[in-house]
């Protein structure tokens, strides 16, 4: 199962971005999804940096297996999960 989160509608609301990211991570764990696609968009790159900082937090990092940046579209990230 693959989940998708597009951050375009809330790009300028920091608190909502963190809530949306936490929500999609929790949903992926609950539904045992193997992949989450996060779309911060291309823009200046600030939103992508914010997403990467969020994902790099110790308690969040423990929840997923790895992150890939899309080589063809720098406005997209993939977070992969391994469920036991």
TrEMBL record:
Residues in Smr domain copies: 5-82
Its domain of life reads Bacteria
Q: Name one Pfam family in it.
A: Smr
**Record InterPro entries:** Smr_dom, Smr_dom_sf
Name of this protein: Smr/MutS family protein
Organism of origin: Planomonospora alba
């Amino acid at each position: 199962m693959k989940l998708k989160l597009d951050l375009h509608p809330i790009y300028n609301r920091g608190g909502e971005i963190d809530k949306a990211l936490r929500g999609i991570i929790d949903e992926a764990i609950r539904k045992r999804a193997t992949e989450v696609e996060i779309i911060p968009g291309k823009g200046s790159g600030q939103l992508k940096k914010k997403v990467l900082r969020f994902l790099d937090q110790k308690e969040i990092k423990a929840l997923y297996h790895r992150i890939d940046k899309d080589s063809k579209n720098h406005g997209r990230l993939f977070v992969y999960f391994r469920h036991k």
